[in-house]
Amino acid sequence: MRNHSQDATQPGGPAEPSGPTGLRLAGGRAVEGEPDGALLGAPMGGGAAGGSPGGPTGPGVTGGPGGPGATQPGGPAEPSGPTGLRLAGGRAVEGEPDGALLGAPMGGGAAGGSPGGPTGPGVTGGPGGPGGLSGSHPPDRTQSILEATKQVAGLLKSTGHPFALAGSVAAYAHGVPQSLQHDTDFAILREDAEAITQDLEAAGIQVRVPPEDWLIKARSHGEEIDLIFELARHPVTRELLDRAHILPVDSVRMPVLAPTDLVGSLLAAFSEHHCDFGAVLPIARTLREKIDWDLLRRENEGSPMPEAFLYLLERLNVIEPPEPREATS
């Protein structure tokens, strides 16, 4: 039923009532008298498409008595909205473009009121509401990860255990621009694992021993901390930790894996089940002038995944290809 008290077409008027068709136009309008389940292009009452006799006519419906676009006495035409729907019998709401598709919002937005689509009275799901896109991106965890990193690093420094920051937070410390979304990795000596566990627990940090026998896990500021004594199946050595650079991490200075050791640990982690070149590529680009690429080629010779990544860097002109070897007689 039409609500004649809300038939005004001036901008800013109240939302249009929904009709009995079960199809909601932009702004909530529906053509009066359509039955539930009316199908696109199905003429009513045996009439042909295009408003032939047998289909209902009414205010704002083209093809009825009085010529195209005529309105019946008793009510003004429906206002045109940003979305056009062609209904059964070929009838269309006045002012809607020919060939408009069912439920297709104008302006490039997706159906459901996502950004770019219409908003206003009668339109469901605007930005931030049902059907919107708010909350579709993961929260930025950079600061909480840095706080956890600083707390654990401070405890390791105060207890005198040798360590070095590794992984994505180490790349961040070296100046690689990125938003941190994963845990913090610390390289430690295996013989220090039990003592470090006791020191962290004494400081109120929860520690657990996972099934993997090459690390222990802690939790600080809601973030995971991995304390690793094997980097990609290579034991952490005192020589590795001695090569670390002392760098500030959000104002706290701590040992950070040297660039060559950092990228080397990432290359060694590539396998048939884990081969995310996209995550390592920006690190290699940023630190390329600080890395001994010839050493990494020698260490990974015969390993298909690291060699494939090094070849990719050559093709992208990130690094120079190796010098050709002289032929031996």
Mind explaining what this structure looks like?
The chain is of the alpha+beta class and 329 residues long. The chain has helices at residues 142-159, 167-173, 193-202, 238-242, 259-268, 277-287, 293-299, 304-315; strands at 163-166, 184-188, 206-208, 215-220, 223-228, 230-231, 234-235, 245-249, 252-256. Strand 6 and strand 7 (234-235) form a beta hairpin. The radius of gyration is 33 Å and the shape is globular.
Précis, in short:
The chain is an alpha+beta fold and 329 residues long.
Helix and strand succession? HEHEHEEEEEHEEHHHH
Query: What is the count of β-strands?
Result: 9
- Class inferred from helices and paired strands: alpha+beta
Number of helices: 8
The overall pLDDT, averaged over residues, is 73
In the sheet with the most strands, the strands line up as 1-2-5-4-3
Give the proportion of residues in helices.
Answer: 10-25%
